[in-house]
Design a protein that fits this description.
Elements lengths: L9 E5 L4 H13 L3 E7 L6 H4 L4 E3 L2 H5 L6 E4 L6 H10 L3 E5 L6 H14 L3 E4 L6 H12 L5 E9 L21 H4 L1 H12 L4 E7 L10 E7 L5 E7 L9 E5 L2 E5 L5 H6 L18 E6 L5 E6 L7 H13 L7 H11 L1
Parallel strand pairs: 1-2, 1-4, 2-3, 4-5, 5-6, 7-10
Antiparallel strand pairs: 7-11, 8-9, 9-10, 11-12, 12-13, 13-14
Length: 342
């Protein structure tokens, strides 16, 4: 995109430069002309300068927050710190882009949005997987209406990681937001809410199955919707042979799709978002759409996915700050998400 004559780039600071800052934020903030990534908090190693020599490094969050040049702060620190650091940033007069989980209760997230309104600032949830390649294909099929009235929907997000995470805070049951329910759960629940809204009833099961695990490493949610729609969300760290990530059944047909979004792997490998290959799934990874003809015959076809890009999220943040456009992830949706997860 190009900036309009009355727009200036949004001067932005990161609160950390671990995997989240390096992979999911910095490449997009430096690609988008509407942002000027200027600062980072680095208490020890000055790692970000190797990738972005111009960056200003602060030794503490407090030092970064008093930088008068910064308009937007990305809170991408450990989950237990999200609410407090977002509060500090808002009180410092900054807009905030907040990593998931944005909080651990609906009351906390409502309080944060109340504070943002009081401060005249905006709070944005970083729910990047609305812009996944595979989920984009699911959304297109659902919105097309080809499946008729939906009856049964399954979303899964599985990994095989039997060893405990070396980041100890992720395995600490006393740390708010720890465990798989608040790690991958926000992604699945946000995707479903973006399609179907707030469920009328939720049933939840979760457990710890890895050796010495103290946090949930498996969960299953059953979301009930009006008109008899049943949505099942599952995730596990002990799935060595994952099946389809998305399975949908309706009165006119079915759709299934594997988890094919390449963005995280591409970013880890060093690919920049502006690369023409970015966000494209591989040939042979198309979804399968099976539809019933009026006489009952079934026909199946491959459905390729359009390329995804997390750049869409940053464009939405830019448009909200500079032009007052509504951000697609709403406070109400985040409250619903946390009512389901907590």
């Amino acid at each position: 995109m190009t900036l309009s004559a009355d727009s200036t780039p949004i001067k932005t600071g990161l609160l950390a430069y671990g995997m989240s800052g390096k992979i999911f934020h910095a490449p997009f903030l430096t690609q988008h002309p509407g942002f000027d990534l200027q600062a980072v908090v680095q208490r020890h190693e000055q790692r970000m300068q190797a990738d972005y020599p111009h960056i200003t490094s602060y030794g503490s969050v407090a030092e970064l927050l008093v930088d008068p040049e910064l308009e937007l702060v990305v809170v991408n620190t450990p989950s237990a710190t999200h609410v407090e650091l977002a509060r500090q940033a808002l009180l410092a007069g900054k807009h905030v882009l907040l990593e998931k989980p944005v909080a651990t209760t609906a009351a906390e997230v409502r309080d944060l949005f109340d504070l943002a309104r009081q401060q005249g600032r905006q709070l944005f949830a970083y729910q990047n997987r609305r812009w996944d390649t595979d989920f984009g294909s699911v959304r297109e099929v659902v919105e097309s209406g080809q499946l008729g009235r939906l009856i049964e929907v399954h979303f899964r997000f599985d990994r095989f990681k039997p060893q405990l995470n070396p980041k100890k805070f992720k395995e600490d049951a006393t740390s708010p937001g720890s465990g798989l329910l608040f790690d991958l759960g926000p992604h699945l629940v946000d995707q479903v809410i973006s399609l179907f809204g707030q469920p009328v009833q939720v049933e939840k099961a979760h457990g710890s199955y890895r050796e010495n695990s103290q946090v949930a490493d498996y969960f299953h949610l059953h979301l009930h919707y009006p008109a008899g729609l049943h949505v099942y969300l599952s995730s596990s760290l002990l799935v060595a042979d994952p099946g389809p990530a998305f399975v949908l059944h309706g009165t006119q047909g079915s759709f299934r799709k594997d988890r094919t979004d390449p963005q995280e792997a591409q970013l880890v490998a060093g690919m920049r978002p502006e690369n023409p290959a970015y966000g494209h799934e591989q040939p042979g990874q198309e979804g399968r759409l099976t539809l019933a003809a009026p006489e009952g015959a079934l026909t199946a076809k491959a459905v390729p996915a359009a390329p995804g890009s997390y750049a869409g999220l940053f464009e939405a943040v830019y448009q909200a700050i500079r032009h007052g456009q509504p951000y697609p992830i709403t406070p109400e949706q985040l409250a619903w998400q946390l009512e389901i997860l907590s």
